[in-house]
Amino acid sequence: MLRYLDGDKKNFEKELNFILNRRKVQNSKKSSLVKKIVFDVKKNKDIALLKYEKKFSNLKKIKLSNLKFSEKEIKNILKKLDKKTKKSIDLAFDRIYLFHKKQKIKNYKIKDKYKNLMSYTSTPIEKVGIYVPGGIASYPSSVLMNCVPAIIAGVPEIYMTTPCINKDYNPAVLYAAKKCKVKEIYKVGGAQAIASLAFGTKVIKKVNKIVGPGNEYVAIAKKEVFGTVGIDMIAGPSEVTIVADKSSRPDWIASDLIAQAEHDNFAQSILIANDKKIISNVNYFLRKQLKVLKKEKIASFSLKNFGLAIFAKSKKNIIKIINNIAPEHLEIVTSKPEKILQSVKNAGSIFMGEYSPEAMGDYIAGTNHVLPTSGSAKFASGLSVYDFLKRHSIIKISKTGIERLGPSVINLAEYENLDGHANSVKIRLTGKK
Fold first, then answer.
1. What's the chain's Rg over C-alpha atoms?
2. Is 35 exposed, middle or buried (0-12, 13-18, 19+ CB in 10 A)?
3. Cα angle vertex 398, ends 392, 399, to 5°?
4. pTM of this structure
5. Is 259 exposed, middle or buried (0-12, 13-18, 19+ CB in 10 A)?
6. Is the distance from CB of 385 to CB of 149 less than 8 angstroms?
7. End-to-end Cα separation, the chain, in angstroms
């Protein structure tokens, strides 16, 4: 089932990188289409937005007047949601809030011996747009993961857009949005939704930053509008790497690999083990569990095309492989997971021990599930309160300060041939007009 790689072979790293990079290839036709959509929405606003929404969402009767959810619509849709799901969303909200409220930046001030005052402070982004996917993926958990850190940061205006699914809207997504006090919710998806949030239309508010997962078209669109607005990250298909040994239960490992593979065709599930027998047993349970899975076709395609079973004898080599992959999710399901954890440098979110499946992090643990993918954990982190704050340096130089420090500024500015910089200090020191 899983493609086998020997992590101790000389050409292993080259072979692994080739497989990992296969998912990163961007479709040039999709990029061209997205650029066209983004430009059209920027130029023609609601007219273009409506055109693409009718085309891609197959909603022929949709009008500008009902692109935004009314309170009455939301109330009627929420009647379809059962109490059990509401309770689960409430619990998830509370736990995510509890974890993220510790992330606020502490402001500070420094006063030097010349009575110069330097301080560092932060303010929330004013307007944030949350994209929540539809189609094969419609997640109320994504609403919570993106909104709660923004709420804690103090973002005053949160807007959300979510596409139609089979001419219907997900009540759990709307419930989570209301729970998070989202200001306005739009019935728009795809690249056109990203463009409309970036540039604004009469119906859809222009925001300062766009966050939230989506398909390849959404990811390309976020990349296209970056600079006009901020974005959280360019996230690719989801992925997990699981480290196992003789103590691991192969049926549990198989279930975690499948949990990731069912996301979409390009999801990636990787097993690293120092025991060939557990690899064989995991493959056995993969076949057995896939037979009863609702998304069997998607998970099977993912596992067959992108799934890997890597055999590596030494702990040193296992750690090297982990840091090379830099997985979005890392599960360490060994007898002594702490021994591996202490050397892990690159991973989005790390799950320790046999009772910590990645699914717990997706929903209820409290940590964020918006994480760097495709190796970007080598330089990026998961979504947090910090992503919704702008940091400011505030400088107040005293008269004594410029007299004592100014000559060094003049020297450095002249060294860099920036006479204007030097003169802006000289004029204050000499008093000449």
1. 25
2. middle
3. 145
4. 0.92
5. buried
6. yes
7. 79
Tokens of 334: 């060994």
Strand stretches in 192-280, DSSP E? 209-211, 230-231, 239-244, 268-273
Beta bridge partners of 110: 118
What is the residue-wise DSSP string for 293-338? -TTHHHHHHHHHHH-EEEE--SHHHHHHHHHHH--SEEEEESSSHH
Cβ–Cβ < 8 Å for 236, 153: no
- Which has the closest alpha carbon to 386: 42, 106, 105, 138? 105
Q: Which residues are catalytic?
A: 328-329
Both tokens of residue 131? Answer: 């994209």
**In this structure, what token pair is assigned to residue 182?**
């989202």
Residues 376/327, Cβ–Cβ less than 8 Å: no
Give which of 244, 242, 274, 279 is closest to 260, Cα–Cα: 242
Please name the residue that has the structure tokens 């704050």.
389
Cβ atoms 315, 7 nearer than 8 A? no
Task: Tell me if 303 sits within 8 A of 261, measured CB to CB.
Answer: yes
Shortest CA distance to 144 belongs to which of 104, 188, 180, 168?
180
The one-digit pLDDT tens for each residue of the chain (433 residues) are: 899 999 999 899 999 999 998 877 667 789 999 999 999 999 999 999 999 988 888 777 788 888 999 999 999 999 999 999 999 999 999 999 999 999 988 899 999 999 999 999 999 999 999 999 875 556 899 999 999 999 999 999 999 999 876 667 889 999 999 999 999 999 999 999 999 999 999 999 999 999 998 888 999 999 999 999 999 998 878 999 999 999 999 999 999 999 999 998 999 999 999 999 999 999 999 999 999 999 999 999 999 999 999 999 999 999 999 999 999 999 999 999 999 999 999 999 999 999 999 999 999 999 999 999 999 999 999 999 999 999 999 999 999 999 999 999 999 999 999 999 999 999 999 876 6
